[in-house]
Amino acid sequence: QRAHAPYSLSLAETAADQADNATVDAAVKQPNREHNNLRAALQWAHDGGDLTIGLQLAGALWRFWRSSGISEGRSWLEELLALPDVAPNTASLAARLRAMHVAAWLASDQHEYEHAAHLFEQSAVLRRTLHMSESETNQLVNAARQARSLGHYGRATTLLEDVLARQRALGDNGSIRNARIGLSLYELALVLREQGEFARAAALY
């Protein structure tokens, strides 16, 4: 089990690294073939094996969870995040931060925006603990999603334009997969499309 869990983590991280290139399908197909192995590794980590590996594994499976089972991913993440870290260090806190980030986005994907906001706030506190730079863009995109769901398109547009301005100022070239400027462009395109602004939406897509 101690050999199996790191192997499973390596498999998941390799698949995640392929998500932005020509082998994108491997980000889902390979974990899907190994789903039972991944569950076994997560269960071992949860039951006292190695919490850090469990958090790292659950976080690395972000794209897989979004394609193959958001609810299952959220369940694993919430159970692992609820466990106490008896000897926190930089690696374990970084793993917790990543898992919390993924849990927040999965909650947002299922329209649980208030819960997502709470997780994003917790992750901001953890970022300060790790002396990492903070960014409010995740919270703003989540708030924009909530506004769009309520039909408050003006607020959603304002929030997303603010996010894009911040990301462009920082030279952000990230993708939808890692919830950076690619995601913000996509979310703004959805808002514009739903208001009939198809040409602008197409440009953003």
Descriptors:
205 residues; single chain; mainly alpha
Give a description of the structure.
The structure is a single chain. With 205 residues, this protein is mainly alpha-helical. Helices cover 74% and strands 0% of the residues. It has helices at 4-17, 26-33, 35-46, 51-60, 62-68, 70-81, 90-109, 113-129, 137-149, 153-169, 181-194, 198-204. Helix 3 (35-46) packs antiparallel against helix 4, helix 6 runs antiparallel to helix 7 (90-109) and helix 7 packs antiparallel against helix 8.
**Count of runs of 4 or more consecutive helical residues:** 12
Helix proportion range: over 70%
Total number of strands: 0
End-to-end distance, in Å?
44 Å
Quaternary status: single chain
| Overall 3D shape | globular
Work out the radius of gyration. 18 Å
Would you spell out the secondary-structure blueprint of this structure?
Layout: H1 4-17, H2 26-33, H3 35-46, H4 51-60, H5 62-68, H6 70-81, H7 90-109, H8 113-129, H9 137-149, H10 153-169, H11 181-194, H12 198-204
Helix pairs in contact: 1-2, 1-3, 1-4, 2-5, 3-4, 4-6, 4-7, 5-6, 6-7, 7-8, 8-9, 9-10, 10-11, 11-12
